[in-house]
Amino acid sequence: MPFSCGVDSCFTLYRHRQGLAGRRNRRIAAGVVMNGFDIWLDQDGAHGMYAGLLDSAAALLESQHAACIPMASNFHELPTVWGDSHGTHLVSGLRLLAGRFDSALIPSTTTYSWLARAWGSHPVSDRHLSSRTFRVADDGAELHRPQKAKVIAQWPEAMRLLRVCFENPASAANCCRCEKCIRTILSFRAAGCQLPAAFARDVTDRQVGRVRLRTQAHVVRWQHILQAARAAGLGRTGWARAIRTAIRRSRRRWVLDRLRRPFVPVRNLVRLLVRGSSLSRGQLTKAARGAQGPASRS
Asked: Which of 29, 119, 206, 292 has a C-alpha 20 to 30 A away from that of 216?
């Protein structure tokens, strides 16, 4: 299996190694830690980030008696859209080991309740990446993130070494500020679990309410957390109300963005006439900083 120290991959490893999957249980013998997947080879601090990730992954895999296999890939240099192609990225690496293993499990990031979502790794499409001698299967699509968090909470090493954040430059630690960190913290909270030691600090209701959900996929994931909170009798807590606030604000921004879109060419023309560039002040500042050092992935 590919292993990233995240919620989905930790859940797949732990439940299969502990025999929690029933008749679907598989003996996972190794995890592949892909350098160049979540962490791109040419981004700032990539070496330090991957080194930290690999140390944590090795410890987690060892605790479940599975081998750790480091692998590097420059797949992202191909002219593809990552959101559409990352499943093939993972499987192309895994199939290099087809002489040693007969199958691979891909930790699912899409649930069966939302199969209409088009995504590069999907319960419907992953199995079509199999061959006659190497079977590829999706795993865990029947559960939402809070349900997976409840299973992972039984694994002390995962609570200490879980890593979901790739927005903390040159660090293997979770930033506790980005959308994914906050979403993961709330998933454990909705599952009735303590804050994992992997997160240095908890989040406030204000932070939750101000998170920007940029796509419908993000909204659906946060709705899953809200559903879990309601099922646990936590639907009226301050943080559950803050989730509803974040969803409303994000949807309002989408409407405003659609209304602004027809006027973007006019705005860019005005900027070009006044400043000599159609970029915003923030974009100009970022471009100037980028010119001073190596390019990094946004």
From this structure: 206
